[in-house]
């Protein structure tokens, strides 16, 4: 009895497999039959613009796709669904409309477009029939490059000099209308934290639409050292005092504080600094005090401050 049931199950499984095989074959033949028939269908293709005159440049973003109504076999339409090539639109012989406005008749591009699609496919219609462009005269100029940086340093560490940029200037190329307003090119913002040693980094420049750069990268170089604070007492000179009066100050010197790298600490000398108080400035601004200011500083220091910022005085006639 068990053997009989086993035979029945095997028989049923064979029938099921045969049925599935015939079903798959039927679907396959039906699908192939459909693909072998001819259809008319509209498909959107992305565009790529070529052969723009050497002295011209696009000032706007032109239409990025066109619709082609095609007549072809199902196999071709399946291919287009899987992979749609970009169609090259030739701008060599475009017509001028007014000022910087131009147009291109796509019916005149018929053979060009037909050559870029399958031989089994024929173009029935093109939409839109006309493309419009704004072209500008190509110009170039040099502009300064400016890095946009957010820098933080470990305590006691600072830049020893201004950050070096390479290159300092780049050439930009675009329409006169576009590049006339560009005075500089900035980098993308870069953040560097807890800096304690020299650094070198390549960063990207911000791009402007329809403008070409001689390079899109900028190298920044920074020299970093351990700094300490220095302090000196300096005499100051009183200048521009009228001969008919005598000005007497309550103090004869000021204290200056500054930041200096450890290696240059002993090289900072009093003679490298000169502080004055301009009496004519006090009179002109009607101040009741003198303002000390530097006319010379050591090139080795930074963040230099004078104390006090106000100096009291008396006038003796």
- Secondary-structure content class: alpha+beta
Distance between the termini: 141 Å
Which term fits the overall shape? Answer: elongated
Q: Compute the gyration radius: what is it?
A: 40 Å
Mean of all residue-level pLDDT scores = 85
- What would the CATH topology of the largest domain be? RNA Polymerase Alpha Subunit, Chain A, domain 2
**H/E series:** HEEEHEEEHEEEEEEHEEEEEEEEEHEEE
CATH architect. name of the largest domain: Beta Complex
Name of the CATH class of the largest domain: Mainly Beta
Main β-sheet description: 7 strands, mixed
Q: Give the count of helical stretches.
A: 5
Whole-number total of structural domains: 3
Query: Level of helix content?
Result: 10-25%
Q: How many strands in all?
A: 24
Strand content: over 45%
The stretches of 5 or more residues where confidence is low (pLDDT under 50) are: none
